[in-house]
Specification:
Layout (H helix, E strand, L loop, with lengths): L1 H6 L3 H14 L5 H12 L3 H14 L4 H13 L3 H14 L5 H14 L2 H14 L4 H13 L5 H11 L4 H12 L4 H17 L4 H11 L4 H14 L4 H13 L3 H14 L4 H13 L3 H10 L8 H13 L3 H14 L4 H13 L3 H14 L6 H17 L3 H14 L4 H13 L3 H9 L8 H17 L3 H12 L8 H9 L3 H14 L6 H7 L2 H15 L1
Length: 540
């Protein structure tokens, strides 16, 4: 009777039934855990923790109590504690591990560890092929990374538990992301079926509304309002309504409903972040900050909140504050990959290259899918180029060497290493780096840049024939090659008329080509000395 009342969202009645069962059989642990789950559904997490701890004390070998307590800590984003409890449950009952393995998958997904999450979902499916939620969660994961297996697993979930509204809604959400009319119709049918099976499935009302809002906003709003009418005590119903109001520009109503969400359940985390963003978008920076800091009362050990506060301060150019909160996230959960990534990009922004590389390495080790090496490398190279422009070749050289000692090599790093050595007057090391590049892997413009740089490195090494050959090769990869290198080779080879002719071509391409400030950022001291000698001699 208590479970039926919980299903109908009548939690006061459910509690009374569970407490009656406990009174009748005080040694029976099941109604105690059911009471805990009811409290969790209401967001009364601290009470739920107390009840589950009582259940564990009553029956230390009842695995479900550990799993249920872990679920509460998961909801509070206290992932380290949740993980320990999930694993404790598995250790007690090694045969029925499907739900616990699924919970570990959810946990690692929230941490940003996609590959580990996938591993746990697959293990859950292997442990219990009838547990539909593992299929659905794996399907969602694949959808997020645009893997074509998403539909297969979401459909398998419904096949295994065809009346479970939560799983039907998951599949409906997948179809609703499609741009085809048939898939939109399929999504609507699934949402309707989910609501019919369980009128308290708030996600189904919201999903059905979002599925049609572009074509029929009036009907969409009706679904959101029906959701609140049917589920007046559920915070998620108000949360979805707030999102709708935000979408249609009713900012005051959105704010009111986000606040109502938190009034019903102050542990509804996404309401804090959405409300904070709403304030920020409307120029209320102080309220945006306050909203996130208020959440600390309920999520004092949440790496998610610490990371989000860090992101807020980063957006306000308060980098030191941002770094502090990113560090706090890792202090409470060393496996929270998103914080490593946040620290990496924050450090890179501040030209703290060693920290940036080290933290990105940690992020990449935890989650190689989300934290793409190419993206980080591209931004890293941009920062290195900025150092070259600032005439800080030695700093660039140190940064590149550290990168290459920690992260995968790439021709762009070798090219940058060659350039850094050249600008730092280490031409002998520069040519070694450039010769390590496989030219066949390069695009046309990259080949041009490589041979141009090689030419200047050879100039510094006084290998004029090699320099000339490199400059000539570079010219074959550009419609308008820079002729300054060949002009210098001609001058050094005592062919001043040819040098003068080539200099004239350089000046036609760029009248500012021989500006000393510009040259200082591009060429080594040794090359500059030779260029200046040439320009002076030709001028005479």
């Amino acid at each position: 009777l208590g479970l039926v009342a919980s299903y109908k969202n009548n939690h006061p009645l459910a509690e009374s039934y569970f407490k009656k069962a406990i009174t009748l059989i005080p040694t029976w642990v099941y109604p105690v855990t059911s009471l805990g789950n009811s409290l969790r559904d209401q967001g009364r997490y601290k009470e739920a923790i107390s009840v589950f701890e009582k259940a564990i004390a009553m029956a230390p070998n009842f695995a479900d109590s550990y799993h249920n307590l872990g679920n509460v800590y998961y909801d509070m984003a206290r992932y380290s504690e949740a993980e320990n409890l999930f694993k404790k449950s598995i250790a007690i009952d090694t045969l029925n591990t499907g739900p616990e393995l699924n919970s570990l998958g959810l946990l690692y997904n929230e941490r940003g560890n996609i590959k580990i999450a996938e591993k746990y979902y697959l293990a859950s499916i292997k442990s219990d092929t009838t547990f539909g939620k593992s299929y659905a969660n794996l399907g969602y994961l694949y959808a997020k990374i645009e893997d074509n297996k998403a539909k297969e697993f979401l459909t398998n979930a419904v096949d295994r538990e065809p009346f479970y509204a939560d799983l039907i809604t998951d599949l409906a959400n997948y179809y609703s992301t499609s741009s085809t009319a048939n898939d939109k119709v399929k999504a609507d049918e699934l949402y309707a079926k989910a609501i019919q099976n369980n009128p308290f499935e708030t996600r189904a009302y919201a999903g059905r509304a979002w599925n049609i809002y572009k074509d029929d906003p009036t009907k969409a709003e009706k679904y959101f309002l029906n959701n609140v009418k049917t589920n007046a005590d559920k915070p998620s119903a108000y949360f979805y309504l707030a999102q709708w109001h935000e979408q249609i520009g009713k900012i005051t109503e959105a704010e009111t409903n986000y606040k109502q969400t938190l009034k019903i359940n102050p542990f509804y985390y996404q309401a804090y972040t959405n409300l904070s963003k709403l304030y920020l978008q409307n120029g209320k920076t102080d309220l945006a900050e306050k909203t996130l800091l208020d959440a600390l009362t309920y999520f004092e050990l949440s790496p998610v909140l610490f990371n989000d506060i860090g992101n807020f301060y980063y957006g306000q150019n308060k980098v030191e504050m941002a770094s502090k909160y990113y560090q706090n996230a890792l202090a409470v959960d060393k496996d929270y990959a998103k914080a490593y990534g946040s620290l990496a990009y924050t450090a890179l922004e501040n030209n703290d290259f060693k920290t940036a590389v080290n933290q990105f390495k940690n992020a990449y080790a935890n989650e190689p899918i989300k934290f793409n090496v190419e993206d980080f490398r591209s931004l890293f190279i941009t920062k290195i180029e900025n150092l070259f422009a600032e005439e800080k070749a030695e700093i660039a050289l140190t940064a590149i060497k550290h990168y290459l000692s920690q992260l995968p090599n790439h021709f762009s790093l070798q090219l940058a290493l060659g350039k850094a050595n050249y600008l730092a007057s280490k031409a002998d090391e520069g040519i070694v780096a450039l010769k390590n590049i496989n030219v066949e892997d390069l695009r046309v413009q990259e080949k041009y840049a490589l041979y141009q740089l090689m030419g200047w490195v050879y100039v510094d090494l006084d290998q004029l024939e090699n320099a000339k050959s490199a400059f000539i090769k570079s010219a074959s990869f550009s419609a308008n090659p820079n002729q300054l290198g060949l002009a210098l080779i001609a001058f050094l080879s005592n062919s001043k008329p040819e040098a003068k002719n080539l200099i004239n071509k350089v000046m036609l391409q760029d009248a500012d080509a021989l500006n000393i400030k510009q040259l200082n950022k591009i060429y080594s001291k040794r090359s500059l000395q030779k260029i200046n000698e040439m320009v002076t001699a030709i001028a005479k």
